[in-house]
Amino acid sequence: MKKISMLIPTYNELENVEPLSIAVEEELKKLSQYDYEIIFIDNDSKDGTRDKLRELCAGNKKIKAIFNAKNFGQNNSPFYGLQQATGDCVILMCADFQDPIDMIPKLVAEWENGYKIVSAIKTTSRENKFMRFLRTCYYKLIKKFSEVEQIEHFTGFGLYDKAFIQVLRELEDPTPFLRGIVAELGFKRKEIPYEQQRRRAGKTKNNFYSLYDIAMLSFTSYTKVGLRLATFMGFIIAFFSVIVALVYFILKIVFWNTFNMGTAPILIGMFFLGAVQLLFLGLIGEYIISINQRVMKRPLVIEEERINFEEEPGEKDA
């Protein structure tokens, strides 16, 4: 009997984990030809989520939990959780009900049709329209400049075959960007559209800093445009600086007594060049941070506790 693993990352989702586990299990029971497990990986919640997960695990051995020793970020935790699944496929979904639970049978059906990865794509969303616009601009930008084909409006929600999960286990990337990895290293893939729902309860954990962090991770991992832009802009500014200098020099020679150079052009040029230098120093710094994190090769997460795990991931295949 094939086994489906459900992976649900959590962080302060006390109000959602119990109704979500009930809803997911009801959907999985409809697929009676499959065995299943539901894995929650908690990123150091502070609101009682862990106590609720312990209750759920105590009442149902098919529900499993991994408790991280601290918050390791919203990229590392799900990526690590995928590697701990023991199923023939893994379905990754968020804990706030924004990913429709009734999509599970559709994902499994496409998997049975031979697709190793089934990506759920947000074609519409009930989120803030301004945020939707910003996300669309980001996806268009990264897709245009990336050397790897990027998947627009893909959050990671979808199904992954165990063969792809094995690829993730062998990757050894301490700062993984799952969406980019799926596009770059993924197998045969099927895209399924869906409408993203509103959060059922609680508040979103995303803020400007966390979204910026994800954007820069994808930017530095899959594009060279920042460094190339710095090089090209340096050449362009240098060229125009020489032209302006020659023009000023000629005007001063021709109109020696009447041409007043003034300090305004000098000040404007200084501030402009200073701003450009700071901009590209910051951009280069982002690349250096990304390189530094990868060179250190630190673990994705450190576990504090795991519940209801009996066999190690990959043990069945071994």
Described by strand count, sense and barrel closure, the largest sheet is: 8 strands, mixed
| Structural class by helix and strand composition | alpha/beta
Weakly predicted, low-confidence segments: 314-318
Question: How large, in whole angstroms, is the Cα Rg?
Answer: 25 Å
- Note the gap between the termini: 17 Å
User: What is the string of helix and strand elements?
Assistant: EHEHEHEHEHEHHEHHHE
Global mean pLDDT? 81
- The neighbouring-strand order within the major sheet is 7-5-6-4-1-2-3-8
What's the shape? elongated
What's this entry about, in short?
By secondary structure, the chain is of the alpha/beta class. It has helices at 14-30, 49-59, 73-84, 104-112, 129-145, 162-171, 178-185, 208-222, 225-254, 264-296; strands spanning 3-10, 35-42, 63-68, 89-92, 117-125, 154-161, 189-196, 303-307.
List the SSEs and their pairings.
Layout: E1 3-10, H1 14-30, E2 35-42, H2 49-59, E3 63-68, H3 73-84, E4 89-92, H4 104-112, E5 117-125, H5 129-145, E6 154-161, H6 162-171, H7 178-185, E7 189-196, H8 208-222, H9 225-254, H10 264-296, E8 303-307
Parallel strand pairs: 1-2, 1-4, 2-3, 5-7
Antiparallel strand pairs: 3-8, 4-6, 5-6
Helix pairs in contact: 1-2, 9-10
Describe the structure.
This protein is of the alpha/beta class and 318 residues long. Helices cover 51% and strands 18% of the residues. It contains ten helices and eight strands. The protein has helices at 14-30, 49-59, 73-84, 104-112, 129-145, 162-171, 178-185, 208-222, 225-254, 264-296, and strands spanning 3-10, 35-42, 63-68, 89-92, 117-125, 154-161, 189-196, 303-307. The chain has an eight-stranded mixed sheet with strand order 7-5-6-4-1-2-3-8, with helices on both faces. Strand 1 (3-10), helix 1 (14-30) and strand 2 (35-42) form a beta-alpha-beta unit. The model is unreliable at 314-318 (pLDDT under 50).
